[in-house]
Write a structure and sequence with these properties.
CATH topology: TIM Barrel
CATH superfamily: Aldolase class I
Largest sheet: 10 strands, parallel
Bound molecules: S-adenosylmethionine, 6-(5-methyl-2-OXO-imidazolidin-4-yl)-hexanoic acid, iron/sulfur cluster
Shape: globular
Number of strands: 10
Number of helices: 14
CATH architecture: Alpha-Beta Barrel
Distance between the termini: 31 Å
Radius of gyration: 19 Å
Helix content: 40-55%
CATH class: Alpha Beta
Structural class: alpha/beta
Length: about 350
Amino acid sequence: MPSPERTMHDCRMDDSDLALADAPSLATRRAPWTVASIEALFDLPFADLMYRAQEVHRAHHPPNTVQLSTLLSIKTGGCPEDCGYCPQARRYHTGVEEEPLLSLPTVVDAARAARSSGATRFCMGAAWRGPKQRDLEPVLDMVRAVKALGLETCATLGMLKDGQAEQLRAAGLDYYNHNLDTAPEFYGEIVTTRDYDDRLETLSRVRASGLKVCCGGIVGMGESRHQRAALVAQLANLDPYPESVPINHLVQVEGTPLHARLGGDAALDPLEFVRTVAVARITMGKAMVRLSAGRRELGEAVQVLCFLAGANSIFYGDRLLTTANPDAAADRALLRKLGLAAHPAST
Ligand code: SAM
Ligand code: DTB
Ligand code: SF4
């Protein structure tokens, strides 16, 4: 049995209790990560942290492969929520116009194009608080069609009601993305139109439906290191932890409250972002750790450190949802330079 309180030494010796983490069906529940033990990881000398992350990464994943995932905003803008980072919230003046749900052929064309340029995963995002049943029906058709192309499928549509996760799964969805975004104690400073428990409730519906969970957060919103550790603790203590963990760097968009609050400049030392990736890798060894929003702003050198820290997936394609992503050609060149191969879907 792992001890209830993890120490740095525990982390080193048992690497997140691999044996237990690998067998979630065992009756034994994993001991929870304490925020203090995760902060101790953050506090390691940088080289030691990277070494530890590499050890865990190589124990669970091919070390020189990265999954390419393409995002498509299927329903852009006009969102009623007030997430302080988000350019799609109706109440902020960010220049993002509300658009209707994309048509099925448009989505299929985009998915086909993504597949032709090498993506093996396709994630569909909608600027909804949550889907109404009449919204969900056309999305189910999109999921069926994208799945039929042989792509791994992911969707992020907001909060789900009873039965909706099951419908998505039956249509062929592999993963549902729903981020916790930040530490519970900081959440209320970023979003007020829902609370942390609402997020956790949707995550438990997703888990119960048999869908795989994609859940991560955003770094660089003015949170403290303690709060970054608390976010990772929340993620790593989900039982089982998410199969997919997107780590976003805040993209500061003019017109959002966070842009006003943080002044538009990089709010965070980039090495702190790298540390967050490494700590996510160490605490969630088997997960796909996705280097998500903010790669353009981070630049190549920091991205390389993120790969060394255990990131093994990127969003690939010239756009995220509404903001710019590195050019696909530049990404291919970067991966080639590093000897990183695109790897196939894991489903
Ligand atoms: N509306 C749904 C929801 O909030 O769950 C799904 C779409 S929402 C845009 C998906 C995720 O994008 C958010 O949870 C957040 O983590 C991320 N995101 C949104 N705006 C961002 C920004 N400016 N920088 C970094 N990540 C962002
Ligand atoms: C995730 O964690 N990040 C992606 C995806 N899941 C849906 C979204 C990033 C959005 C960045 C801001 C934008 O482009 O609108
Ligand atoms: Fe809406 Fe999602 Fe943006 Fe929040 S993050 S404003 S819920 S689209």
